[in-house]
Amino acid sequence: MSFQISVQPSGRNFTADAHETLLAAGIRQGIGLPYGCKDGACGSCKCKKLSGTVVHGPHQDKALSADEEAQGLVLTCCATAQSDVVLESKQVTAEGALPVKKMPVRVVSLEKKSHDVIVLKLQLPANDVMKFHAGQYIEFLLRDGSRRSYSMANAPHTLEVAPPTVELHIRHMPGGKFTDPVFTTMKEKDILRAEGPYGSFYLREDSDKPMVLLASGTGFAPIKALIEHMQHRGITRPATLYWGGRRPADLYMADWVEARLAEMPNLRYVPVISNAEAEDHWTGRTGFVHQAVLQDFPDLSGHQVYACGAPIVVDSAKRDYVAQGGLPEEEFYADSFTSEADKAKA
User: What is the pTM of this model?
Assistant: First the structure.
């Protein structure tokens, strides 16, 4: 049995089978629903149910609390329809989403940028190049059937140079099914299976609001893609990048950022370190990166925020920027890097 799903105010419509989540049905039919982890952990897909009945699968309370569910909020990534449903999601546009493809990818290079970060470059099939928005991610299909997601750190226009290559920033998670091989046995010319693009994190180009770009750790990857895209498109809206790490070495491409500053007068950069040691000789900003933003921008009511990285940083930023900074909730765009350990807490 299938049901009719309508999304307001965009007027987009699609059908959902009783056995599939609303999000899976939307992705299958090219509807640009907002989402992040697809596993009930991050809350990025949360939206208002205006009418109809859904049933939720397992999810984390921080993504959707019982009170929120009682108020009619739903997580589309783990909700299945029991009737026709009308949703409200202001992030859905009249445009269709880009098609998702499965593809083989070839390892071009592995470059160690810090003790626990590798920049992995992958060649895409040249005969059917994937289209994506700067900020989206791909999933690796592992042999045991599990998946791992990584944001692309380059902008789409870079694929125009042959061979088409995507760049990923991989942080080592000891014991990780994917990251352990990346840091030990993976080598150039290895073939991996991938699928994408996924995600609703991308630059909203129909706005002229100044932007805060917030990154923690390898959350810099999709932010780097946004900056590349802005430069390519000649977007001159003011943008301030706040990049946080425990130690200065965690800001593993600071030289790349400095080079962009020389070319993009609209871009500012504020590195923030939380656990500097004396040997680091760090003289810059210290503390939690999301708090540095509010120190500089106590009024965020006229801004857009693009936040990526650890869930605790993204969640804290959204809570504080809306409650203390007056940021409109719909102007907070996020990609929360939810690990398998995070998902296991659901």
Answer: 0.86
